[in-house]
Amino acid sequence: MRILWLSPWLRTLTRVQVDALADAGHATLVVTTDQHYEKVVARPDERVLDPAIKDPRTLPPLARVTAEARRFAPDVVVSELMHDPRWLPMTRLAPLVHVVHDDRPHDASEERPWHRRAVLDHQTRTAAAVVAPSAHVAAVLSARFGRRVDVVPLTSDVPEADLPPVPVPAAQRRDVVLLGRMSPYKNVAVALRAWARHTASPAYAGDRLLLLGNGPLDRVELPEHVEWRREHFAYADVLPVLARAKASLAHYRLATQSGVQVLSMQLGVPTVVSDSGGLPEFAAPDLPPLGIDDVDGLAGLLGRLADPGTAAALGAGAREHYERHFSADRAAVAWSGVFQRLAAERLGA
Fold first, then answer.
1. Is there a contact between 132 and 113 (Cβ–Cβ < 8 Å)?
2. pLDDT in tens, 49-66
3. Cα–Cα distances in Å, from 44 out to 28, 48, 170?
4. Where does the chain hold its CATH 3.40.50.2000 domain(s)?
5. What are residue 174's phi and psi, to 5 degrees?
6. 205-218: pLDDT as tens digits
7. Is the preceding omega at residue 167 within 30 degrees of 0, hence cis?
């Protein structure tokens, strides 16, 4: 099939998914922007637009890309976090598959203006199919909009070819990582309390808790053996640190699913999650989720993972779990199923 993919925000994830679809025999054209924090060079299958909606100079390039998309003659259009009304004509070139990642904002900083919500909700109501990356989000959307919502597993936005050697052996394991945009929903306060309790226990093995990322979280008092690297990172900087960690914390207060969770499992890192939203769906079976305020449980699990042999064994299990359920080729199979169903429905009509 010929797939037009509109993704102004999730450029790196889109690349991984369309590459897997290309491997499965599909042709793709991507329309995106340069707003993703990981800065990359445009590929031959990408058309990069300026998102400045009020600047009239952006209109001629948009018209050219829209005309090219029409000539591409897609069999299906995928729209992902696309709220620019000027892009809507491209959603009408073929049956639309609208992707919704979250059922609600994580916090006030993620609240969208009403006009952006209106564009996104319009697509959710009118698309030929709606896709969510977790059953949790699918159930909420289905109830809210009264329609079917398909689940396509969330894969990592880092290609396998860009990974360091994984999984890292036990002798090279050190530290625990909390990665990403530091916001209140990341549950950092609970993580710090659990870490302080762990470092005061006999299980402590000299590791650090590394907070890697900037964000709106107010500065907090850090206990001993905690380091906050408060900046935006490129993947080339983060991947080696995360890959050798004894654990990755995605123990969030509010989550629908987590890109950090799937990236950590892809790297072969034991990933600790809470029982919030869709996180339990993604969790490896040998690391069950914990309650969002379970400081004792989190401290105890950190003590268990302080042993490098245990961390390496659970990390290998996390990597196997990722490959079986969340790899790019698994996602491509699910995407192809959605596309084939739409094609069959179109023929039947």
1. no
2. 999 988 999 999 999 999
3. 11, 11, 41
4. 2-155+327-348, 160-325
5. -160, 150
6. 999 999 999 988 87
7. yes
